[in-house]
Amino acid sequence: AQSVTQPDARVTVSEGASLQLRCKYSYFGTPYLFWYVQYPRQGLQLLLKYYPGDPVVQGVNGFEAEFSKSNSSFHLRKASVHWSDWAVYFCAVSMDTGGLSGKLTFGEGTQVTVIS
Amino acid sequence: EAAVTQSPRSKVAVTGGKVTLSCHQTNNHDYMYWYRQDTGHGLRLIHYSYVADSTEKGDIPDGYKASRPSQENFSLILELASLSQTAVYFCASRVQGANTEVFFGKGTRLTVV
Asked: Which end of chain A is more exposed for a tag (fewer CB within 10 A), N or C?
């Protein structure tokens, strides 16, 4: 069965510094991968998604992610963090080949704290 | 912007009581989902629906029922609430198609005492 692991439960970063959040997946076949962000007291919002193709995916608000099949990873990056990036970030993989069901398997989430 | 509205936003329920969580979407989406989120964990799928009057079991359906009386509405029902069902519940919807974006509601915080 597919699974997603986010090894860092919490990350603290200074405003203006770079950020990388790690995501490892287990999936038989070619995965469809997503990063979601959850701001305080809000639902999840899509940051970016990966479909088979270019391994580097651009998302909203300056976020990008890089897919690596050899490492089974889909790490999220941002060059310069803003205080508004304080949130919980979830990596997710589509449960079925082709993604027709829309069912997602989520990682545990990484809480990002931004300090000045 | 797609809208998914959940009610109530928070609820305290008594062990053994019946709880109904409601979800309404105005996106004309076919697919709707119920996830639960536990502290320190990701979201897990409880039930989902492709079409009105039909529901499917997700990964953790035990102790939950779902109802989809119309395309817009999707309810999650806890017939006999238990302490272990204390969590935040998210409803979501999406349009039909491969890997189309899933839109989430703001969540319902349920505390069972």
From this structure: C
What number of other Cβ atoms are within 10 A of residue B111's Cβ? 14
Interval B20-34: pLDDT, tens = 999 999 989 999 999
pLDDT tens for residues B1-59? 678 999 999 999 999 999 999 999 998 999 999 999 998 778 999 999 999 999 999 99
DSSP B53: T
Angle, CA B46 vertex, CA B99 and CA B27 arms, to 5° = 50
CB B25 within 8 A of CB B6: no
Q: Check: CB of residue A74 under 8 Å from CB of residue A103.
A: no
Structure tokens at A93: 């993989």
Q: Mean per-residue pLDDT for A70-93?
A: 96
Whether B102 has its CB under 8 Å from any CB of chain A: the answer is yes
Question: Which stretches within chain A are classed as H helix?
Answer: none
Cα–Cα distance measured from residue A91 to residue B44, given in angstroms and rounded to the nearest whole number: 13
With beta carbons under 8 A apart, name residues in chain A contacting B41: 108-109
- CB within 8 Å of A60: residues ≥ 6 apart: A47, A48
Q: Which residues does chain B have within 8 Å of residue A104's beta carbon, measured at their own beta carbons?
A: 43, 45, 102
Around B48, how many Cα atoms within 13 Å sit in the side-chain half-sphere? 21
Instruction: Examine the pLDDT at A53 and tell me if it is beyond 70.
Output: yes
